[in-house]
Amino acid sequence: MNMQGTELHMFPVVCRTYQQPDETLNQRVIESMEGYPSQQSNFPEGVITSRPDLHKVEEGPITELRQFFWDCLAEYRYAYKLYCDALEISSMWFNYAPAGSGFGHPLHRHPMSYLSAVYYLTPGAPTFFDDPVTPRTYDTLDVFQGDKMDCEWGINEKFDAQENKLILFPSWLRHYSGRQLDNYDRWTISFNVFPCGSVNVGPFEMPQLKVSIE
Ligand SMILES: [Fe+2]
Asked: Core-most of 92, 148, 184, 211, by most CB within 10 Å?
């Protein structure tokens, strides 16, 4: 008997990617960030992170990039027919890992947000998204699988840092970035998103929640 099973993947996590079309924009954004308030965070990992209010900057190339993000969020809301008036950026910041620094982000999630995003201003170390299901098996039934025995960090999906690529993912999805060991700087923009206006309108045309953010 020659039996061949078929793998069935159920309940996948849906993320969505976009491509920013202006090839000149990233370098202009990086140069415009010179002097913007920033500090090392995520110790001991050490990535340099800006003040998280880039979504409020009123002039310069970052406003062009923010417009691209807004367009993506409008497409996202329409694509999934979300019951809210808008998806708004509630915080936005840059992440800078200097060339050869070995800086990276530890495993984390973004609480108090609906969607989160990473946008790659440069290539560099990849982002890893942690399998949300695997941790349920820790300390219980765990039969080692071939080359997956070393699962200290769990099973994950690697997403290469590609310039001009934006990825939107659910904020509860844990992720981390690899250490920047290449001989060039790694720059990304991250932001968090919240549904705003009338959310989940139901009977009597009343929403479950009305939201506005500052
Ligand atoms: Fe993150």
From this structure: 92
What proportion of the chain, given as a percentage, has pLDDT over 90?
A: 77
Cα 175 to middle of ligand 1, angstroms: 6
Q: Summarize pLDDT for 134-146 with one digit per residue, the tens.
A: 666 666 666 777 6
- How many Å lie between the centroid of ligand 1 and the Cα of residue 201? 30
CB atoms within 10 A of CB 77: 17
3-class DSSP assignment, residue 62:
helix
Q: Rounded to the nearest whole angstrom, what is the distance from the C-alpha of residue 25 to the centroid of ligand 1? A: 22
Domain positions in the chain are 16-133+151-211
Q: Report the range of poorest mean pLDDT among 57-66, 151-160, 195-204.
A: 151-160
Question: pTM score > 0.85 for this model?
Answer: yes
Residue 2 C-alpha to ligand 1 middle, in angstroms? 45
Provide the CATH topology of domain 16-133+151-211. Jelly Rolls (2.60.120)
